[in-house]
Amino acid sequence: MAPRKARENPERRTAILDAALRVFADKGYRGATSRVIAAEAGITPGTIYWYFKGKEDLFRAVIRERSPIPAVLAQAARSDRPPEEVIPEIMDTYLRALEEPPAKYAFRIVLSELGHDPELTAVLREEIALRLLGALSEYVTTQMDKGRIRPINPAFVPMAIMGPLLLVLLGQSLMGMDFGPQARELVVNTISDVILRGLLPRDEGSSGSRLNPDPNLNPWKSVPSDASAKGR
Q1: Which of 37, 154, 219, 229 has the lowest tally of Cβ within 10 angstroms?
Q2: How far is 156 from 48, CA to CA, in rounded Å?
Q3: pTM for this structure?
Q4: DSSP string for 16-84
Q5: Where are the alpha helices (DSSP H) in 82-117?
Q6: Where do the domains of the chain lie, and which CATH numbers do they carry?
Q7: Position 131 confidence tier, pLDDT thresholds 50, 70, 90
Q8: 20 touches 106 (CB < 8 A)
């Protein structure tokens, strides 16, 4: 008999992920059952377990493969490029991805589930915070070593980059604010300009005494990012 992986159907796996994304976004993590997901995908419930260990494993796959995280990680992995290029591209990639239905659904899932279930919150922390913010933190560290970013604690720079973007997304999701292509470009240019003015090396004599560049003060170091391994 052929190994299990060899007998898996990639198209069916994709259909399960797409169906799970819609069901998780509509019913939440707790309300999404294997039976409902299977019906959405047009398969039997048992087929799901041929591709995924269970609902948590399926949820992890949805977050990993149907969110903007992989695209942002790919940008952060290109650590040879300067922050003036990479940071605006990361922002644009993130916002552009979230204009598409799959990523919109994934963001809605995160909003609806975060903080409600300790185990699920741990999954989101591992898949989003540690992977995404960890990769950005490592990019900042590399750029500091190259002298392209002034001495600063790299752990908190990702929060400065992603925080304003989350406010934009909340405005879209909760308040119906419309951000078209022109508005997206303005958002990216404005936020990246503010951030870069704080990150780039300053003239001699400028004060940075309030900032602690100690790399050990980094909450994102506990889980290595995929991007860091590829970028080295």
Answers
A1: 229
A2: 39
A3: 0.69
A4: HHHHHHHHHHHHHHHH--HHHHHHHHTS-HHHHHHH-SSHHHHHHHHHHHSSSHHHHHHHHH-TTS-HH
A5: 83-97, 101-113
A6: 8-63 (1.10.10.60), 67-200 (1.10.357.10)
A7: confident
A8: no
